[in-house]
Amino acid sequence: MIFRKLLTAGAAGGLFAVLACGLVPAQAAADEPATPQPTPKVELVLDVSGSMRARDIDGESRMSAAKQAFDDVLDSVPQGVDLGIRTLGADYPGPDRKTGCKDTRLLYPVGPLDRTDAKTAVATLVPTGWTPIGPALLKAADDLKGGNGTRRMVLITDGEDTCAPLNPCDVARDIAARGIHLVIDTLGLIPDASTRNQLSCIAEATGGTYTSVEHRQQLTTKVKQLVHRSTAPVVTPVATEGSPSCADAPLLKQGIYTDRETFATSRWYRVEVQPGQELRASASVSDDRVVNANYGVLLRGVTQRGREIVRDDEAGTGRTDAVSAGIRYPKPHADSGTPAETVCLEVGNSFSAPASVKVVPGLPVELSIDLVHGPDQPSDVAFFGLGRGWWLLGLLALTGVVAGLITGWIARWSLNTGRTR
What we know:
Blueprint: H1 2-31, E1 41-47, H2 62-75, E2 82-88, H3 97-100, E3 104-111, H4 115-123, H5 133-143, E4 151-157, H6 168-177, E5 182-189, H7 193-206, E6 210-213, H8 216-229, E7 238-239, E8 251-252, E9 255-261, E10 266-273, E11 277-286, E12 295-302, E13 308-316, E14 322-330, E15 341-349, E16 363-373, H9 390-420
Parallel strand pairs: 1-2, 1-4, 4-5, 5-6, 7-9, 8-10
Antiparallel strand pairs: 2-3, 9-16, 10-15, 11-14, 11-16, 12-13, 12-15
């Protein structure tokens, strides 16, 4: 019984020490002035054409699935993001192409979000007319003008543009050429091959992503992810071309790179890691067309002599639009004058496609390279995020245990003294 009291007192003292150690840095961080960030802007562009009546998403209509997804998305928009909603094909039900191709409307203006107003506006939508994707993209780009924050457009449609000769892919290229760093992500609801190709082209032109959607929850999750991505700093990927071997691979610096990789092949890149630096790399391969289930992505680092240093491989089952792998390699400090180490990065994939699917061009690859200061000594490795402060945590915990033991012995002495009286 006495031992239990001593143990409880010691644990309480140790817990207090841990909490104290965790709270002090947090308070210090809270006292630092926050730097105001530019306001991100996002516009959701929703297809409300007649084909959205089709009931093939979890037994519901495409329009119903989109509305439910929007309700969930609007509840999760991060604070400080200006959001707007534009429709296409929501108002004109007639046969006149010229009129139908002007049918795009700003349903909710880009700005601070009033969730109730936005949800009410979306609830009134009824599948109606044409699919003027090109005109809607142009208008949406104008909606997002101004400010220095990130700009992101998310296009959700179930079909191709019906307003040729204005090609939506050419519109996206024109938007990218303006230099306003507007990214267009596209989502295809139960898309056919033509729709998939058009939406992939739109996304690719602006550095965005394309996703095929067959379930409501998948739509909700993806749109949430894209809206949250708007809060990240603007980074423009650099196009590169990997090589079949390390010997003639391009030498990459810190940054984000894009490439194309044919099915079931590998590409090589090189990175120079200075003593004391840590290489952090990740690679994503996207299935921008129909592929067979069960595939994977490999990312590994090897020396120029072929010795493997580190590797990661991730598998997919056909339920995602991209598979990613990531590695970390710290190069220890050495004497001054030690040269940098060239690390060869291999990005491979095991994708395959049905016979009817074109394999050219290759699959989109995004490669992220980061070089950070590595740990000086093994003891500098972060311990639950404390870095070198781990020893302070240990000292405080030990102090708490000792204090608990002393308190327990005093309590025991007082108890025994009281009994002798």
